[in-house]
Amino acid sequence: MGSKRRTRRSGFTLIEVLLVAGILALLAAFAIPQLFGQAEKARQDLARAAVGRNGPIGKALEAYKWDMGRYPEDDEGLGALYKAPRGEDAERWKGPYMQNPTTLEELKDPWGKAFLYKCPGQVNEDSYDLWSCGPDGKDDGGKERSDDIKNWVEQ
Predict the structure, then answer these.
(1) pLDDT per residue over 122-152, tens digit each?
(2) What is the pTM of this model?
(3) N or C: which end of the chain has fewer CB within 10 A?
(4) What single string gives the DSSP state of each residue in 128-146?
């Protein structure tokens, strides 16, 4: 007697595929917003580190002051960390004070906007104010609900 063999196809049914796709979509709906939130927090942390006294710009400004006897003035701005001054100050300048002096990339915040600098500072009157406009890219001018990231603490 001959026995009939049943051949069974291997693979997934449409229902199984749809079920897996639905589960993946559900996981993505929860995970993706969390990832974007972490990325924004990381940008804010990078900006805080950059404007802090121990950050790369703060250290460069201190080195500049050590050599020149002062911080760069407003009209010189942060570009003074890269460009040698002319005249009598040229001999004391030992820069560039930051790496990668051919570009100003280091002087941009994580959102691609230039860091803002004022010397003497309005808040730090004996030194300088350094800040980023933050995620919205607008200088909030010290407003209470500002997203600006500053090198001073609001009182």
Answers:
(1) 888 888 999 888 887 777 765 556 778 888 8
(2) 0.68
(3) N
(4) -EEEE-TTTT---TT-TT-
